[in-house]
Structures are given as structure tokens and as C-alpha cells.
Amino acid sequence: MSLTQSSTGVTPSSSSSPFTKVTMPALAEMKRQGKPISALTAYDYSIARLVDEAGIDLLLVGDSLAMVVLGHENTLAVTVDEMLHHTRAVRRAVRRALVVADMPFGSYHGSTADAVANAVRFVKEAGAEAVKIEGARVDLIRALTLAEVPVVGHLGLTPQSVHRMGGYRVQARSTEGAEELKLEAQAVARAGAAALVLEGVPREVAAAITASLDIPTIGIGAGPDCDGQILVFHDLVNLTFAPPAKFVRRYGDAAELIRSAVEHYREDVEHRAFPSDAESYHLSAAAARKTVQSEFGDSRLDDVDAIVNQDALLDWEEISQA
Ligand code: KIV
Please, where are the H alpha helices in the chain? Predict the structure, then answer.
């Protein structure tokens, strides 16, 4: 934290207008009322806070953080401890949105008992309000729901299955594939999932699944007929260093903003244009008099004002003792 940042600057704003906390039942109600659900990924305090203050309904601490934050090639490497660390940061920022944590690859693929224990950590240690798991794991969804851990399912293109799928491919393109996916979605809903992410599936398939379920669907690369939409935050603002997928719409260019701000700062430092006198600390008049007197005697006291304004010439020890 910089010296100039007030302590209230690091807690979510309490002065903004009243809001209603988004809960899992509230998402179901939005579906019933035909209100679209907005969702984004977030992985850290500052972005989560901005996303929440912008009124997004659901924040997913996605395992995509493995790629967009940690620089891995796919999502498989991220660990439970890393996901917990980022979920805590997001939790500290968010007041209104529903916070969902992705369970990483390997954390729910062994025994049900281990999977439930891992999921409970996201709720208990990191403040998640639900966990997301990929695949039609109906027994696990049932066990998690019984353990009071709300579940968001994730079907279609499931990135943790990248090796089985042989790459990131649109799923359920055939009639049989579409029917199979619909049956899986219905089984996931029956098992107790509170919402379902549909990723990388034809629009028509997502629309049919959405119409057949009571729980909300949240689409990514699944067309406009889902109950809600989610994007990876870094895709939205051009921070991914790769050509965007077809379904991504860029709403801003953070890469350009950051690059230009950083280049400008470097140039200012190199040309001694930063910091200015106004961005510097100054001695009080009394301390300046004392310093000048001890250094130059009474003869220079008239010069105090001028010397105070040149306090960049005084070393840090003198300034901090003032
Ligand atoms: O990890 C993630 O970002 C996701 C979204 C793409 C839904 O799972």
C-alpha cells in the first residue's frame, strides 16, 4: 500500500447505494423472471472489486487463472491451494455478487469423500458460495449438495478434459451428441446442481437445454439463448496475448492502456520529469529553520523558504527526522 492510500481505500465502498446480495435462489428467480444473468471471471482483489461494483451478478474464480494469470498452457496445473489463495482475494473484494470457485483438475476426480472435503475448504477457508465442477458427475453433485455446498455444473467443452477431447473443440455438433448433452444436463440438474455453465456448444443445443431446465444456464460460446453469459475477464479487456475465440467480444483494451501508461512513466523517469516538486514531501517551516540554522548559522535563515522548496537536496534522514 502506498503512503498516500487511505485505509478506507482497501475495503469495499460502503457509501454506494444499497444493493441486494445475489444468492443462488436469486439466480433461479432471475431465470423465472426472464432476467439475464451477467457473470465474469475474476482472480484478484482489485479486478473483483471493480467487477462487483459494476453490478455483475456472479464472479467465478475460474481455473482459467492457470492460463491468464499464471501463464500455464492449459488449466490442468493449478492446485487447490492456489485456487483458495485467489478465491480469498476475490471474496475480500466482493459485496454483492455471488462468488463461485472452480474446483481444479484432480481435486474432485478421486473419492467422493476427498472431493467433498476439498469443496468444503472453498466455502470454509475462502468464502466461496458455490463450487463449479466439470462433467456429468451426478453422484458427486448429489453428495456436495447434501453437504450444503451449492454446485454449478459445467458441460459441453470442459477444458479439464482437453487431453480426452484432443483440443478445445465445440461439442455436441451431431444430433446424437446434442441429445446426449441434453440428457447429461438434465441429470446434473436432477442431482441438485443450482446452475449450469454450457461452454462451446451450438446455439440451438444450448437453447434447447436452457428451455428444458428449471435451473439457470450460463453460456460461454453457447449463443444468446442461455439464461446468462460468462466471459473470462482477460478476454473482455484484451489481456490474453492471443487472437480471441469467435465468441469473445472485447469491450476494452487494457493491454494498450497499461503499455502506454508504463512507457510514459519510464520516459518521465528517464527525463527526470517524475516526480515533480508537488509530488515531493517538504519540511515544515520550523524544521527547515532548524536544519538551516544548524547547517549554515543564522546568516542563511532568510533563505529558508527557498531551501524548503529545494528539499530534494536534503537527504532522507534529515526529512524523516523533521
Ligand atoms: O475457468 C473458467 O474461466 C471457466 C469459464 C470459462 C466458465 O470455467
Answer: 24-33, 45-53, 65-68, 80-93, 112-124, 138-146, 162-165, 175-190, 203-212, 233-236, 254-270, 285-296, 304-308, 316-321
Q: Does residue 202's CB lie within 6 angstroms of at least one atom of ligand 1?
A: no
- How far, in Å, CA of 9 to CA of 7, rounded? 5
Mean pLDDT for each 10-residue chunk of the chain (322 residues)?
A: 39 59 98 98 98 98 98 98 98 98 98 98 98 98 98 98 95 98 98 98 98 98 98 98 96 98 98 97 87 81 64 47 46
Q: Find cell 502506498 and name the residue.
A: 2
Residue 199 pairs in a beta bridge with 156, 220
CA–centroid distance, 74 to ligand 1, in Å, is 12
Tell me, yes or no, if 199 is annotated catalytic: yes
What is the position in ligand 1's atom list of the atom closest to the CA of 197?
A: 7
Catalytic residue among 199, 204, 267, 270: 199
Output the nine-digit C-alpha cell for 239.
489481456
Q: Could you identify the atom of ligand 1 that is nearest to the CA of residue 230?
A: 7
Q: Is the peptide bond before 275 cis (omega within 30 degrees of 0)?
A: yes
